[in-house]
Structures are given as C-alpha cells and as structure tokens.
Automatic annotation (TrEMBL):
This is Uncharacterized protein. Signal peptide: none annotated. It comes from Lactuca saligna. It comes from the Eukaryota. Transmembrane segments: none annotated.
Length: 435
C-alpha cells in the first residue's frame, strides 16, 4: 500500500471506489461525520482512528468507544489489512501510541489515505464482525444450562422485567433464585430504580422474595443519594443545593431527607434538576403535585434555557409493569439532552453501578454475569463493563420480538436483529428467569 505523508490542515483523507465513501473530513465536521448517511459511518470512523489510545478516542469524539471497537481491530488485523499512521510527529504501524492531551495542534495529528481495496476490506470485515457478534449469542431455555456450563461467582440481577413485573413475581423466579443460592452464587440486585436500596429489598420481600438470598442491592436511587450526600465527587461538589424535583405520584414521592436540599418551584431559583419520577413535581412544602408528562417537559424547556444541569436517578426509558410499558425518568433525561441540557446519568448502562455491584460482591468482571431485560441498559452496560450477560426476552423488548405470552421463546433471527439494532450483545438469551 502506498502511504502519502499528511498535507497541512488535513486530518485524514480516504479514497474509495464507491461514491458514498468519497469524502474529506476534518475535525470541525465530526458531528456531520457521525451521522454520515451510510450503514458503516460509525465503524469507518472507528477504523480511521483505530490503534490510537482509548483516551484519544474520548478526546476526539467525546463519546465512549462502541462495544465493537476491539473486535474491529482484531478482525481487520486478522485479515492483514495494512495501516499507515502519523501522530505526534512519529511514524508507527500496528501499535497503540499514547498521545498528549494537548490538542492545540489537533488539525495535523493524523492523516490516513485508504485506497479502494482497503475500504472494500473494511466494509466486508465490519459486516462479518457484526454478524459474528450476533451469531455468537447462545439461546437457552433456562438458567440451569448457564449455571452448569460455567461457575459465575456473582450474579448481578435486574429486577423489573426479570424477577417481577412490579406487581407480582414471574413464574419460577423465586425457585430459580433458591437454586442459584444453593450453588453458592452471590446475588446482587442491580436496578435503575430511583428508590433507595433498602426500599428495593423491602419491596422484593413484599412480593414474596427472600431478601436473605441477596448479599445486597445497588440502585440508581441509592447511588444518587450517596453522591448528593457525600459531595466527594468534583461534579457534585459544585452542584448547588436548590433544585426542581420531579418525582412519583401513584408510586409515592421520593424522600430527600438528609440531603440538605431545598426544593423550589421557580426555575429561576433552581441550581439543578433532580429527576426521580415522571408523575409529579415536588413542592417546597415537602409535598408534591401530580403533573402530566407534557407539563414536566415544559418545565424542562425553561430549565434547559437557563442552563442548569440535571441528575437523573433512574436512567430507564420504560419499564414493564403488569405487562404494560411505563414511561420512566430516562425518557425525560434524553429529552433534556436534546434541548442542550447537561445530564448526570446515575445507573445502567454506565459503569458506575456495575463497579459498585462488583465491589459489594468482592469479585471482578471475569467472575460476574449480569442478567437483564433491556438491551440498551442491562446488556450494553455489561458489554461496556466487560461482564458476560444474559438477556431475558419477556421484558421490555417482548413486543419488538413478537412475543405474546410469558415464557414464549423468541425467534433467533429476531434476537440477532435486535442485538445489532442496539449494538448490545448478550452472551446468553433466555425466555424468562426460570431454572
């Protein structure tokens, strides 16, 4: 492959045989590039910057590397795709250079010209890699097959859509927990519930679960409470004390006792937005008043215009409740980001909650498995944390998979397509949390 040194003012240039790939990009048009209209836009960008240090990826794109990053490297290397790189005035190949975080000269840090045969190889290998990721998924009928095929020391269990539907346990869930406990499994509830961990365990007990089967619970609400109380994180340290509080009505409002916060109703007096629920607005008196989702969204428009940050204590978009999908705080947070607002996500799919769960169990990622019903939250979060995972299909994705009843087995091709859609790849797939 002929390698041409970089020309001044150019980040990289690739030459391709297919018209849709013929383009010159600079760092100023990263956003346009990420939404470039072809099915491989994101993966091509990953290829162009592959073998840079992971920190470089964060600095350039301001997003975490996709789960396919390392798989893409391996796939391209195993097919002998040639690469030529320039960075920090050094020439390198097949290595991971550590770049300085001083990006004052970022316009000239990299130039790579990919000739037609290389771009063709990229496209073919990306397709093969994606298909391989999906085809590696193992579909089982019960957890016994997983428990007997490999001994996981810790099981990180989602609750809604896996153990129960908010009203009652799913058939076989309690006996499955007992079977895992009898084999010495350390089980931790890892939930995006906006409530405290103790409240979550009390709720499980009221539904007929034995709390002693779990070594504990880590919830988004617990993490939020701890960070707001301790203020030992730089982001929370400067957050302020006055907030707009969005909470629950039918489910019961979330207590802020012990946090030293002042709830205000006037956006102009608020220093941040705290979102625990999607049904009500907290009042300065300590009570709350029911609000429609549209009314809460209108308030958020004013908050975004003022430029105050949001802490979301439940990143879920929807949850399963008595076989119905219910809107959750993550939906409000996603809308707030679209309005230009800053959001602190306190739960899955972010690593913060997985690290806390593994610390509680005293294990590392290699000895853990996460079980959940959300590809975006549970499975993608496990992927990002290096944890194997089991996807329960009877939860929030049941309708997308064309499932009509509990325990119905999903079509293999439908599971593969959904995994590709969400770029989230479970190690195992089960119709339900049964033995």
């Amino acid at each position: 492959m002929k390698v041409v040194p970089p020309s001044e003012g150019t980040i990289f240039k690739h030459v391709a045989s297919k018209p849709r790939f013929q383009s010159v990009f600079t760092l100023e048009c990263v956003e346009d590039m990420l939404y470039f209209d072809n099915p491989f836009h994101h993966h091509l960008w990953v290829f162009f910057i592959l073998e840079l240090h992971m920190a470089t990826y964060h600095e350039v794109l301001n997003v975490p590397p996709p789960h396919s990053f390392l798989s893409t490297l391996w796939c391209l290397k195993s097919n002998h795709v040639g690469l030529g790189w320039w960075g920090s005035n050094k020439s390198c190949s097949a290595s991971i250079p550590r770049f300085s975080k001083d990006w004052s000269a970022k316009r000239a840090f990299l130039d790579c010209r990919l000739w037609p045969e290389i771009v063709t190889a990229v496209e073919e290998n990306i397709m093969a890699m994606a298909a391989s990721n999906a085809s590696d998924i193992k579909i089982f009928t019960g957890l016994q097959q997983i428990a007997e095929s490999r001994h996981y020391k810790a099981w990180l269990l989602d609750q809604f859509g896996v153990l129960h539907d908010g009203k009652q346990p799913y058939p076989g869930a309690i006996s499955t927990l007992e079977n895992l406990a009898s084999r010495g499994a350390k089980m931790v509830i890892i939930s995006n519930s906006s409530r405290r961990a103790s409240t979550t365990l009390d709720k499980l007990k009221s539904l007929g679960f034995d709390p002693s089967l779990f070594i504990g619970a880590i919830t988004s609400g617990e993490l939020t409470y701890q960070h707001l109380q301790r203020r030992d994180d730089p982001w929370f340290r400067v957050l302020g004390k006055t907030c707009i509080h969005m909470t629950w009505s039918d489910r019961g409002a979330i207590s802020l006792e012990g946090l030293g916060l002042q709830v205000v109703e006037n956006v102009e007096k608020a220093e941040f937005v705290l979102v625990h629920g999607t049904e009500a607005l907290g009042l300065s008196s300590g009570d709350s008043v029911s609000k429609k989702l549209e009314e809460l969204e209108k308030i958020l428009e004013h908050c975004a215009a003022k430029g105050i940050p949001m802490v979301v204590a439940n990143p879920d978009f929807v949850t399963v409740e008595a076989r119905e999908l219910r809107i959750m705080p993550g939906t409000l947070a996603a809308s707030y980001e679209k309005l230009g607002g800053e959001v602190k996500w306190m739960g899955k799919p972010h690593e913060i909650i997985y690290k806390a769960a593994m610390a509680m169990a005293g294990v590392d990622a290699s000895d853990s498995i996460a079980v959940g019903d959300s590809l975006h939250h549970d499975i993608k979060g496990a992927n990002a944390s290096g944890i194997e995972s089991a996807f329960i299909t009877c939860g929030i994705h049941a309708s997308e998979l064309g499932l009509g009843g509990f325990g119905e087995v999903a079509d293999v091709s439908s599971v593969h397509a959904l995994a590709l859609k969400y770029d989230a790849y479970p190690s195992y797939v089960l119709p339900s949390f049964t033995w």
